[in-house]
Specification:
The complex is a heterodimer of chains A (115) and B (114). Chain A has 115 residues and is mainly beta. Helix content of chain A is 0%, strand content 52%. Chain A contains no helices and 12 strands. In chain A, the strands form 3 sheets. In chain A, strands 2, 5, 6, 10, 11 and 12 form a 6-stranded mixed β-sheet that branches. By secondary structure, chain B is mostly beta strands. Chain B is built from no helices and 11 strands. Chain B is globular, with a radius of gyration of 13 Å. The chains are: A mainly beta (115), B mainly beta (114).
Chain lengths: 115, 114
């Protein structure tokens, strides 16, 4: 089975500052990794995903994440945040093998951007 | 804009009622999902349909009954629910159920059981 840990439940940051949201995972098999964003009262939207290849993954809205196998991490970064980035961010993992796309989500990080 | 459409957006039902949540996608996806999300918690998988057949049931109580009438539609029939079943119910779809495919979520149906 896979598990995901998002250590920071909330991250306050000023507009135009950089931000990093941390994600660590645990798995006995190879994994695929995802970051989703959930704006208030909405569903989830995929920001980016890592399947294989380059460990630096670029996503939508200026976000990027780096897969680090030795540290079992997949931290999300943005060099300059905007007020509109205020949302809940979920890291998720699925096993790279098998036929069922079962996502296991972390507990989420609330990004609060202020002026 | 999400391409997974869920209705209704809000539903209030009594514990003796029977109601249904509906989900539709027109992306040609062959895998569809129901997730449950409690307030300030991550989504939890309930059911997976692959090619219109139920492939995963995550030990969900029988008061929740999924149905996939065709490749574009997914329903969740609700009967004799409890107040603790109040949550956001998210429908999702992907090209197929192979791991790694992007899962697209709808905006959800807010369910309140009174």
């Amino acid at each position: 089975a896979q598990s995901v840990t998002q250590l920071d439940s909330q991250v306050p940051v000023f507009e135009e500052a950089p931000v990093e949201l941390r994600c660590n995972y645990s798995s006995s098999v190879s994994v695929y990794l995802f970051w989703y964003v959930q704006y208030p009262n909405q569903g989830l939207q995929l920001l980016l995903k890592y399947l294989s290849g380059s460990t630096l993954v670029k996503g939508i809205n200026g976000f990027e994440a780096e897969f680090n196998k030795s540290q079992t991490s997949f931290h999300l970064r943005k060099p300059s945040v905007h007020i509109s980035d205020t949302a809940e961010y979920f890291c998720a993992v699925s096993a790279a093998t098998g036929t069922a796309s079962k996502l296991t989500f972390g507990t989420g990080t609330r990004l609060q951007v202020t002026l | 804009d999400t391409e997974v459409t869920q209705t209704p957006k809000h539903l209030v039902m009594g514990m003796t009622n029977k109601k249904s949540l509906k989900c539709e996608q027109h992306m040609g996806h062959r895998a569809m999902y129901w997730y449950k999300q409690k307030a300030k918690k991550p989504p939890e998988l309930m059911f997976v349909y692959s090619y219109e057949k139920l492939s995963i049931n995550e030990s969900v109580p029988s008061r929740f009954s999924p149905e996939c009438p065709n490749s574009s539609l997914l329903n969740l029939h609700l009967h004799a629910l409890q107040p603790e079943d109040s949550a956001l119910y998210l429908c999702a779809s992907s090209q197929d159920s192979i791991s790694g495919n992007t899962i697209y979520f709808g905006e959800g149906s807010w369910l309140t059981v009174v």
